[in-house]
Design brief:
Radius of gyration: 29 Å
Strand order of the largest sheet: 2-11-9-4-7-6
Structural class: alpha+beta
Shape: elongated
Largest sheet: 6 strands, mixed
Distance between the termini: 143 Å
Number of helices: 3
Length: 202
């Protein structure tokens, strides 16, 4: 007799289709030289000693991007820093750092109550001007206005993808040495002068 075999073919399921799409996107990204960010971090750093900032002293705070792998790019990067303005006073307007390829694509803002600063990089309309390396994203300065301990921290942003927010940056401000100490030192200087004059008269 005539035997016919029915061969059933199984098409790809949804999970397979997702994997195929992801693979195609990865290949396209490799060809174009742009990869989505996977595990980058933005953190707060300062070159100053923040354990004993004198009241009236100005310190610079850097928002730093790290962990960007070769080929990864950022077209959009928002970073808002919160702090206690009662201790740290009014901040200066953020200035774009060296990793920002076009300052015209960087937007800065200072809160009306001076308790936050925002730096935003948006190159979605110009992907060729994306951020492609680690380094300082933006910088701003604060001046200690009162003694106390506080911290600077990032405000979570739901639009921030593939970038982790770093830990808060702690700061302690203290009052300068008492004026009485300066008077005491001045008194010692006066006594030394008077003693010298007395010796000269002899």
């Amino acid at each position: 007799g005539d035997f016919r075999f029915l061969i059933a073919t199984k098409g790809p399921n949804c999970e397979d289709q997702k994997n195929i799409q992801a693979s195609l996107l990865l290949v396209a990204a490799l060809v174009l030289g742009n990869l989505p960010v996977d595990a980058a971090t933005i953190s707060l750093q300062s070159d100053s000693d923040l354990n004993a900032v004198l009241v009236g002293q100005q310190v610079t705070i850097n928002v730093v991007l790290s962990g960007l792998e070769e080929g990864e790019t950022l077209d959009y990067l928002p970073a808002t820093v919160l702090f206690d303005s009662a201790i740290l006073g009014s901040p200066t307007t953020p200035i774009a750092g060296p990793i920002v390829p076009d300052e015209n694509l960087f937007f800065a803002d200072v809160g009306e109550s001076s308790d936050f600063v925002t730096g935003l990089f948006d190159a979605c309309s110009d992907p060729e001007s994306s951020i492609t390396s680690d380094g300082v994203f933006y910088s701003f300065s604060v001046t200690a206005a009162a003694p106390g301990s506080t911290s600077l921290s990032f405000e979570p942003d739901p639009l921030l993808e593939g970038v982790t927010l770093g830990n808060p940056l702690n700061l302690t401000s203290v009052v300068p040495e008492p004026a009485s100490l300066a008077i005491w030192l001045s008194g010692l200087g006066t006594l030394a002068v008077l003693r010298r004059r007395g010796l000269c008269r002899r």
